[in-house]
Specification:
By secondary structure, the chain is of the alpha/beta class. The protein has four domains: 3-141, Rossmann fold; 162-294, PAS domain (Beta-Lactamase); 303-463, Alpha-Beta Plaits, CATH 3.30.70; 490-654 and 683-691 and 701-741, TIM Barrel (Alpha-Beta Barrel), CATH 3.20.20.450. Helices cover 44% and strands 23% of the residues. Strands 19, 20, 21, 22, 23, 24, 25, 26, 27, 28 and 29 form an eleven-stranded mixed sheet that branches. Strand 13 and strand 14 (383-391) form a beta hairpin. Helix 2 (49-58) packs parallel to helix 3 (75-84) and helix 15 (437-453) crosses helix 16 (465-486). The protein starts with a strand and ends with a strand.
Length: 742
């Protein structure tokens, strides 16, 4: 056995054809070897059959040059061995046998060619080259076929693993191919769809659009187009992956990108089939989640998240459409503006969570009062708007407003807290009260504020006279701002009397506005408006300074030490710098903290009790005392009252007014007196106007009173004169107290 790897370029041996030369005649074998050695072949020789079989088992050969007559076996037997074991190699038989049977036997066994000895040099080389060329082509074809098979497997895997539905339709719209994703998303197997028309999966309402996109033939760059279609799920197959998440109902939104497949000559129409137009290739992508997200975003953009009602933007759109329709049909429509009365009190008292629950319950009640075509929207806060289209007459709108008032007057249960509210409702009617959206809303708003001004809990239609009132409010706000700048505000004082001695023991300060045109205005005429328009903070700042200035004047006049009570707005207490402002004012004017008493309402105790306790404790540490004003009118809590640093309780005048018989029984008055006595607190009764009231209060233990029975509010100068007159009458006067109320 001999092997020869020819010299030449450094190429791996596997790149050279490997030939096995088999002949038992050494001279012929050597001659054959020399003839082929310069041809860049890898040559291996064998002198007998067993040696040839050993080489065939040892390595792979491309070509075997085989002599039929060998000492131990015939060449036919070697070929049988090759065929039996599936050894892939070509065989060229070289034999000196002149019988035809030897050649036929070799060719039957798959020999590439049969050369009779002696053969010519050129004949041998040409036969070997042809055999190897055929071999190379076969190997190349096999590699190509293998690559094609692998590629097909890969693309089949990619197509079936695609998150999209991939399909082809013939020119008649029947499925010719569809991947496995159709089963996962729609529940249809490939067998159920192949050969079926695409309409089997398209939603009935989208069939016309599908017909257009699938039947239209376009060429070149315009062949691709997209359309959104809803596809039906197969209700019989419910086990598809992702179907439960993607298709919660029986319809699915699909973004469909289709590409028309056509021949180059562009043949179309009924003869397209014979011209070779195969149909359409398409990709269907599931966009159900995206569509739902878009719908959710769009919904949230036009709806109030808390109440799930249309918001201001959507309401204006619907009102605009209703106005257009009313104009076309020459009918009326009503716009209503609803503001919940007492909502702020509930929100401040019970907290924003309970306030939100109240808004949700109120929205449901209002919605139940409306027709299907009416629109209820939340403008913001506790304000709602309603449009009532196709109004027959104003009585219809009035009836809806009365239903609103009736349903809102029923108690609301907020997790055990029973709350009562009402509403102020303004109504504007198209076209008499306005023809534009903004006019109707503005006039309904003005009518609503008119109801609030008249005591709330009612409804009113807009009329032109209300516009003058609205303008007056704007003018009032501007004038009040100027009043702060021009020094038009002034403190008045109403003395407090010890009925046992008839002596003045304190006073309550009341704010007055010296209006340039309207004269002297009481606090009740402008402070509620100031609270609504954000003016309480600057007014409270002014009042704190006025309080200290008055005390300074009194102290400089040599009067007695006076303690003034500052009636504190909840907004002012909530401001974080209140304590610093108080301490700064006292330092700036040289006022002792013991001369100041801060009055709070019971609602402050409930609104944010821990914060209020912290703020008031700071004041007490500074030396300022604390009083509760209008006791018994708010959401009082004895637990909070016990925790707060309270020194004085003031009985509200609403309870005092109920006293008509000095021998009568008035349990609320008696209860408040008992609380003050039990907690060791000072007690003051407000609004005492009759001798009967004074005698009843004195008889039951309340001896400090104020009211018109004794003194009306007076300026600081007048009050000083009164105190001086009292000092002359009673030289040994006790310390007086002045309570200042905004």
């Amino acid at each position: 056995m001999n092997e020869n790897i020819p010299a030449g370029p450094a190429v791996a041996p596997d790149f050279f054809p490997r030939l096995l030369l088999v002949d038992d005649e050494p001279r012929l074998l050597s001659s054959l070897y020399e003839l082929l050695r310069d041809r860049s072949y890898h040559l291996v020789t064998a002198t007998c059959g067993s040696e040839a079989l050993a080489q065939l088992n040892r390595m792979q050969f491309d070509l075997v040059l085989l002599d039929l007559r060998l000492p131990d076996m015939s060449g036919h037997e070697i070929m049988d061995y090759i065929n039996a074991r599936g050894i892939e190699c070509d065989v060229i038989v070289m034999s000196g046998d002149v019988g035809i049977e030897a050649a036929i036997g070799a060719l039957k066994r798959g020999a590439y060619d049969y050369l009779r000895k002696p053969y010519s040099r050129e004949e041998l080389l040409k036969t070997v080259e042809n055999a190897l060329q055929k071999r190379r082509l076969a190997v190349d074809n096999q590699c190509i076929a293998q690559r094609l098979e692998n590629s097909e497997k890969m693309y089949r895997t990619l197509v079936d693993s695609s998150p999209d539905i991939i399909y082809t339709l013939n020119h008649e719209g029947h499925f010719t191919f569809i991947n496995d994703r159709a089963y996962q998303l729609l529940g249809y197997s490939r067998e159920e769809l192949i050969g079926k028309h695409y309409s089997i999966v398209v939603h009935d309402e989208d069939l016309e659009r599908a017909k257009y996109v699938f039947s239209e033939r376009r060429l070149d760059d315009r062949a691709a187009r997209s359309v959104e279609l809803r596809l039906k799920c197969n209700g019989n197959n419910g086990g598809s992956n992702g179907a439960e998440r993607t298709f919660s109902n029986t319809l699915m939104a699909i973004s469909l990108g289709a590409l028309g497949m056509h021949v180059k000559d562009g043949s179309e129409g009924p003869d397209a089939r014979k011209h070779g137009v195969p149909g359409i290739y398409g990709v269907a992508r599931d966009i159900t989640d995206r569509k739902r997200a878009e719908e959710q975003i769009s919904y949230q953009a036009y709806h109030d998240i808390l109440t799930d009602l249309p918001n201001r933007m959507l309401f204006k759109d619907r009102l605009g459409l209703a106005v257009i329709q009313a104009k076309r049909k020459q009918t009326e429509l009503a716009v209503m503006f609803v503001d919940l009365d007492r909502f702020k009190l509930v929100n401040d008292t019970l907290g924003h969570v309970k306030g939100d629950e109240l808004l949700q319950q109120a929205a449901l009640r209002l919605k139940d009062c409306l027709r299907k075509g009416d629109t209820l929207a939340r403008q913001g806060g506790d304000e709602f708007t309603i449009v009532l289209p196709e109004l027959r007459d104003r009585a219809d709108a009035q009836g809806v407003a009365e239903k609103f008032l009736e349903c809102l007057q029923r108690p609301f249960d907020l997790d055990g807290h029973i709350v009562h509210i009402s509403a102020s409702i303004g109504i504007a009617v198209y076209p008499n009260d306005g023809e534009s959206i903004d006019e109707l809303l503005r006039h309904a708003d003005i009518a609503m504020y008119q109801v609030k001004a008249l005591g709330k809990n009612g409804h009113s239609f807009y009329h032109d006279s209300m516009l003058d009132v609205s303008h007056q409010k704007i003018a009032l706000e501007q004038a009040l701002r100027r009043a702060l700048e021009n020094g038009e505000l002034e403190m008045y004082y109403q003395p407090q009397i010890d009925v046992a001695t008839g002596r003045i023991v304190g006073a309550e300060g009341l704010m007055r506005w010296n209006h340039p045109q309207r004269g002297l205005l009481s606090a009740g005429e402008f402070l509620p408006f100031a609270e609504e328009n954000g003016l309480m903070l600057p007014i409270s700042d002014w009042m704190l300074g006025a309080l200290c200035r008055d005390l300074l004047l009194w102290n400089q006049a040599g009067g007695e030490t006076i303690r003034l009570s500052l009636n504190l707005s909840p907004q002012y207490l909530d401001r974080g710098d209140f304590f610093e402002k108080m301490r700064g004012a006292l330092t700036r004017y040289g006022i002792a903290p013991a001369q100041i008493e801060v009055e709070i309402t019971e609602n402050i105790c409930i609104r944010n009790p821990q914060y209020a306790i912290e703020q008031l404790n700071k004041l007490c540490q500074l030396g300022v005392s604390v009083a509760i004003d209008d006791f018994g009118t708010g959401y009082s809590s004895l637990a909070y009252l016990h925790r707060f640093p309270i020194h004085t309780i003031k009985i509200d005048q609403s309870f005092v007014k109920e006293i008509h018989d000095e021998n009568g029984h008035y349990p609320v008055i008696l209860a408040i007196i008992s609380i003050a006595r039990g907690l060791g607190l000072h007690l003051v009764a407000e609004g005492v106007e009759t001798e009967v009231q004074a005698r009843y209060l004195q008889a039951n233990g309340c001896t400090t009173m104020q009211g018109f029975l004794y003194f009306r509010p007076m300026s600081l100068t007048s009050f000083i004169h009164v105190l001086h007159a009292q000092d002359q009458a009673w030289p040994q006067a006790p310390v007086s107290m002045i309570a200042v109320q905004a």
